Amino acid sequence: MIRRPLASVGEVSRNVAEHAGQMGLLITRSARALVTLQVSPREVLNQIYVIGVQSIPIVLVTAVLAGIVTSQQGGYQFQGAVPLYVLGSIVVASVVLELGPVLTAIVLSGRVGARITAELGTMKVSEQLDAYHAVGRDPIAILAAPRILASLISVPVLVAMANLVGVLAGMVAARATLGLGYESFLYGARLFWHNWDLFYSMTKAVTFSLAIPIISIHMGFRTKGGAAGVGRATTASVMFMILTILILDAFFPPLLLQ
């Protein structure tokens, strides 16, 4: 009876160590490919278009809704209790510190991460990755490194756009629903603004921009079991990405907001 739980713990520990080791090798080999200029600039630009440009509509829609909801809920909670211009600070802080980077990363996990895992997983089960090895080409340099670099470039830009649009949407919503003027909203936003908040938000963006492609590429390269295996790998990849984003997000306040 005791051996069964111990065996389960050992199996989980082995899987965790295996995933960590493989992702460590992926990061090392991708960094080496980037430093030694083995990456195709054309492929990087193509991935920037896929990861960044094509994600703009869904990221902006998410940011607009986040700004509107934050403004309306803040107005409901604080109206009559504190000066209404404080709502500007609430919206800006909520969007820049949390909602902008986290919601953008979660949206990209579903849109970009799932796509990367499905693409590479299909290539794995159809033995296309083995074909690269057979002709002496490195799949890491061809497939992994361009996606990681493109994500590192695109995600911070998307987060910056989400922050700006979310704040503007919150400002418009405050004017429309609460009658708070733009000048009063901006006064409240400036009154409690810290330049460190923007650095904090962009640090989150860079961290998430690495986590999303690394996990999705790793899961794609591990795919096995045909079409059903691709589906399982894609589902697990999205789950791991979202959990990783939330776990990393929980570490930011004690590390950077003390």
Task: Considering the chains and any ligands shown, give keywords for the structure.
9 helices; 258 residues; elongated; mainly alpha
Structure, described:
With 258 residues, the protein is an all-alpha fold. Helix content is 86%, strand content 0%. The chain is elongated. The protein has one domain (3-256). It has nine helices and no strands.
SSE layout and pairing:
Blueprint: H1 3-35, H2 41-51, H3 56-78, H4 86-125, H5 128-134, H6 139-178, H7 182-191, H8 195-221, H9 226-256
What does this entry show, briefly?
With 258 residues, this protein is mainly alpha-helical.
* % residues in beta strands: under 5%
- From the alpha-carbon coordinates, what is the Rg to the nearest angstrom? 22 Å
Assign a percent range to the helix content: over 70%
Identify the overall geometry.
elongated
Following the backbone from N to C, one meets helices and strands in this order, namely HHHHHHHHH
Q: Mean of the pLDDT scores? A: 90
What's the number of helices? 9
Structure summary, number of beta strands: 0
Number of domains: 1
Euclidean distance between termini CA atoms: 46 Å
Q: What structural class is derived from the secondary structure elements?
A: mainly alpha
**Main β-sheet, in a few words?**
none
Residue windows where pLDDT falls under 50 for at least 5 positions? none
